[in-house]
Design a protein that fits this description.
It is a single chain. This protein is α/β, with parallel strands linked by helices and 272 residues long. The protein has helices at 43-48, 75-88, 101-112, 128-132, 136-141, 143-147, 153-170, 176-183, 188-198, 200-204, 229-233, 255-258, 260-271; strands at residues 4-10, 13-21, 25-29, 52-56, 94-99, 117-123, 216-223, 243-252. It has one domain: Alpha/Beta hydrolase fold, catalytic domain (Rossmann fold), CATH 3.40.50.1820. It is built from 13 helices and 8 strands. Strand 3, helix 1 (43-48) and strand 4 (52-56) form a beta-alpha-beta unit. Helix 2 (75-88) packs across helix 3 (101-112). It is globular and about 45 Å long.
């Protein structure tokens, strides 16, 4: 995927940011274990539709800087990174699309800085209060969050026998070679795990969270093995400026890669 990558200084670190196209700005925020290339089926489509796409590698991911402390990956810092990217590029307000861990960052960006978000399309992950309040099935699906807290042990186990545990956990063999290539670099797997370690409380407790005051669209895929539909549909109660929901049938958690033919028309519809 062609991309004009820029090195952007934000909050004392350097982030790699792909910027493509011209027109209204769309910010794409990836999750774990991805980087900005997870949007390779969306960026050309959005550019052709007349948008300028901004797709950062979030801290610790892709080609961005990799802070060493767990606390460096706390949600407050992640949100400030997104604001810093917009400031560095001179962007006042964006249309926001985010997936997985990126979606959690997106919800917090929309809650804390609504003046910077025109509308928000959340993929897979619902409002953090809806996630925290989801039922037993969601708690069971999130077993890996607790396993990741075993610092050092899980890094060792995840990579044994050609990353067998990681492959079993992710269950997406088509994308595994890309993940392995990126996460095999020194420190990168730990950096990804630090998202879960630095934000354990934020993932399971909803105290202090406010509703979102920008229009929101939630999109969830029926083949998602990590997130239940309830945690997405429950987000409706935390969206004060409008909520729409779409369920994609048959595709896995990485709907950008697994079903771009279903996702891309929805993105174009709601970005307009």
């Amino acid at each position: 995927m062609p991309a004009n990558s820029r090195r952007v200084q934000v909050n004392g670190i350097e982030l790699n940011v792909a910027v493509e196209g011209a027109g209204p700005d769309v910010l794409l925020v990836h999750g774990f274990p991805d980087d900005h290339t997870v949007w390779r089926n969306q960026i050309p489509v959005l550019v052709a539709a007349g948008y300028r796409v901004i797709a950062p590698d979030t801290r610790g991911c892709g080609e961005s800087a990799m802070p060493s402390r767990t606390a460096d990956y706390a949600i407050d810092r992640l949100v400030l990174d997104l604001v810093g990217v917009l400031d560095a590029l001179g962007v006042r307000k964006v249309r926001l699309v985010a997936h997985d861990w990126g979606a959690l960052q997106g919800w917090h960006l929309a809650m804390r800085h609504p003046e910077r978000v025109e509308r928000y399309i959340a993929l897979s992950c619902g409002h953090p209060a809806a996630y925290a309040g989801a039922g037993l099935e969601q708690k069971l699906r999130a077993y890996y969050v607790l396993v990741i807290q075993l610092r050092g042990v899980i890094e060792f186990l995840a990579t044994r026998f050609d990353w067998l545990f990681f492959r079993i956990m992710s269950r997406y063999p088509k994308e595994f070679p890309h993940w392995k290539d990126r996460l095999s670099r020194p420190g990168r797997l730990t950096a990804g795990f630090n998202y879960y370690r630095a934000n354990l409380r934020a993932m399971f407790f909803s105290d202090g969270l406010s509703p979102v005051t920008v229009p929101v669209v939630g999109i969830w895929s029926s083949g998602d093995i990590f997130l239940t539909e309830d945690q997405m549909t429950g987000s409706a109660g935390f969206c004060n400026a409008g909520w729409q929901y779409h369920r994609l049938e048959g595709c896995n958690h990485w709907m950008q890669l697994d079903a771009p033919e279903a996702l891309n028309p929805l993105l174009l519809e709601h970005l307009r």
